[in-house]
């Protein structure tokens, strides 16, 4: 055998080895425990050397953030932060500074809880973060501050670490995270006494699916509950579509090779346990509003960075289309054509389109820059939350 033949044989063996390793990797993805880590990345804490019970480490004022826990109906314990708006902290600084720092054993005894409960004009954001990390990771703390700045005396935020994240107990799953979000909403409405019309659901990445599922759940109750609005940053249509586009850390395309073979990708998707089908839940939610005039109008704001390499911004296009076509017959291509003709161009800031669909408004904002996480601290996101509360909206009777 000549040198060239030997070299060719070596290359063939190497390629066969790579293919075999990749096939083994894809096979491993059918194991639920492995899927959990790929979808949720909850073991990647990103705050390993920081104590989430002392939020001052992230630049908050002393006791501006109250860490506390919530017990779920199925026996898990969730770690949470209640973030006071800075103006409210200033108004009650003396009392807040006199309280002990750290985890509140009974949140109802803390001044921050009383400020939220007793203010009839208080607004509350229920915050659902993305995969990986904790409620103190990355751009999340700056995002809390940017949101509160829109209403420095009124906008409170409560964020949770889902089960299996941070110091919360348990293991994440689609059903489990839905229980967690419902527990938070129950706490806000029943224990604090904040009516749903003063509550906005905020989600980023994975959290968008959690927020949509929460709104979907409450809209289907015998006595429906409707929140003031939803702000969804870097959403995805469902996990099945995400498998074909997702890149780890924005660079490693996990299943792009498999996506080139649609039948193989379809087969692999049958093994996915947690579907998180926002493209199904969101239009179902809208249909309920459209079919029952007694329900209030909905407000949904999608925001995405064009340079998001983790979840491509085209997922927002998909969600926008599914939401619109729940009220009218229109193809994806026709809607895209209408959007291009009517959208507001903002130059290097991107573009925005807003559409009244049935008995509500859905708004899509695509920014040229923002990546997957950095976008959370942008003014567009803070303004979206403010609009979701009914301020500055053409469709809202609370416009001011």
TrEMBL record:
Lineage: Eukaryota, Fungi, Dikarya, Ascomycota, Pezizomycotina
Domain AB hydrolase-1: 125-314
One Pfam family of this chain: Abhydrolase_1
Entry keywords, A to Z: Membrane, Transmembrane, Transmembrane helix
Transmembrane feature ranges: 12-34
Domain of life, per lineage: Eukaryota
InterPro entries reported for this sequence: AB_hydrolase_1, AB_hydrolase_fold
PANTHER family: ALPHA/BETA HYDROLASE DOMAIN-CONTAINING PROTEIN, PROTEIN ABHD13
UniProt-recorded name of the protein: Abhydrolase domain-containing protein 12
Secretion signal, residue range per the UniProt entry: none
């Amino acid at each position: 055998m000549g040198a060239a033949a030997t070299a060719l044989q070596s290359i063939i063996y190497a390629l066969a080895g790579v293919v075999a390793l990749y096939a083994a990797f894809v096979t491993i993805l059918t194991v639920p425990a492995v899927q959990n880590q790929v979808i949720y990345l909850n073991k990647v804490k990103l705050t390993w050397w920081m104590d989430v019970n002392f939020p001052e480490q992230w630049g908050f004022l002393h006791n501006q953030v109250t860490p506390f826990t919530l017990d779920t109906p199925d026996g898990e314990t969730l770690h949470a932060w209640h973030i006071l708006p800075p103006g409210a902290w200033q108004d009650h600084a003396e009392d807040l500074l006199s309280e002990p720092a750290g985890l509140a054993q009974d949140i109802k005894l803390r001044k921050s809880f009383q400020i939220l409960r007793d203010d009839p004009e208080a607004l509350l954001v229920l915050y659902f973060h993305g995969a990986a990390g904790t409620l103190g990771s990355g751009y999340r703390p700056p995002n809390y501050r940017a949101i509160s700045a829109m209403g420095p005396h009124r906008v409170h935020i409560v964020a949770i670490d889902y089960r299996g994240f941070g110091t919360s107990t348990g293991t994440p799953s689609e059903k489990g995270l839905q229980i967690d979000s419902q527990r938070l909403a129950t706490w806000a409405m029943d224990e604090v006494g904040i009516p749903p019309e003063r509550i906005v659901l905020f989600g980023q990445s994975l959290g968008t699916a959690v927020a949509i599922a929460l709104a979907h759940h409450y809209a289907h109750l015998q006595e429906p509950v409707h929140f003031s609005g939803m702000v969804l940053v870097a959403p995805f249509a469902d996990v099945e579509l995400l498998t074909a586009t997702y890149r780890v850390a924005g660079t490693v395309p996990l299943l792009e090779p498999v996506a080139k073979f649609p039948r193989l990708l379809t087969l692999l998707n049958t093994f996915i346990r947690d579907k998180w089908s926002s493209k199904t839940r969101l239009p179902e939610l809208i249909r309920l509003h459209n079919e029952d005039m007694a329900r209030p109008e909905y407000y949904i704001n999608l925001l995405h960075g064009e340079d998001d390499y983790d979840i491509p911004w085209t997922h927002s296009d998909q969600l926008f289309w599914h939401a619109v076509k729940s009220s009218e017959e229109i193809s994806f291509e026709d809607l895209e054509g209408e959007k291009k003709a009517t959208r507001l161009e903002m130059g290097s800031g991107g573009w925005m389109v807003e559409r009244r669909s049935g008995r509500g408004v859905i708004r899509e904002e695509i920014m040229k820059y923002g990546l997957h996480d950095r976008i959370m601290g942008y003014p567009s996101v803070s303004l979206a939350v403010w609009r979701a509360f009914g301020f500055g909206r053409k469709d809202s009777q609370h416009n001011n």
